[in-house]
Each structure stands twice: as C-alpha cells, then as structure tokens.
C-alpha cells in the first residue's frame, strides 16, 4: 500500500492517527512518519495494520517483503579500506 492508501483505509475505518498514537503511548507525529515511510517501526506498523485490518506485509510491503537493507555503513567500509593501504 502507498501512504495515501493507508490514510484512506484508516479514514474508511474511522481510525485516527491520534488514536493509534494514544494506544501506543507515542506522538501522533511518529505514527504519521511511519505511515508516510519516513521512519521504520515494527511496533507502529503492527498497530496501523491491525487498525486497517490487513497483514503487516500487505500494508507495508517494502519493509516486510523488500530487499534486505545493508547493516554496515559505507563510511565504515571506507575506513577499513583506507587502513589496509597503510
């Protein structure tokens, strides 16, 4: 789903971002950022998917079904490479 589809699905079910935030004890801005793919939070994704009534993988497919992300930083790799040349 796209962020716009997520918002429409929540609206259709009459669920607000504020109500999700209140249940989780977090700010409404955090929920908004997760819905808009600006932050990654499994906890928020789970709550949003439950509110929409669909599996997490359907609501946030890029995170749950997309390619695995690198865990190392490019800067770390650069330093490692730079030290080998000394």
List keywords for this structure.
86 residues; mainly alpha; 434 Repressor (Amino-terminal Domain); globular
Number of strands: 0
Major sheet characteristics: none
Per the principal axes of the C-alpha atoms, what is the gross shape? globular
CATH architecture heading: Orthogonal Bundle
What is the radius of gyration computed over CA atoms, rounded to a whole number of angstroms?
A: 17 Å
| H and E order | HHHHHHH
| Mean pLDDT, all residues | 83
> Which structural category fits the helices and strands?
mainly alpha
The fraction of residues in strands falls at under 5%
Helix content: 55-70%
Unreliable stretches (pLDDT < 50, length at least 5) are none
Ends: how far apart?
49 Å
CATH level 1 class label: Mainly Alpha
Domain module tally:
1
The helix count comes to 7
CATH topology-level name: 434 Repressor (Amino-terminal Domain)
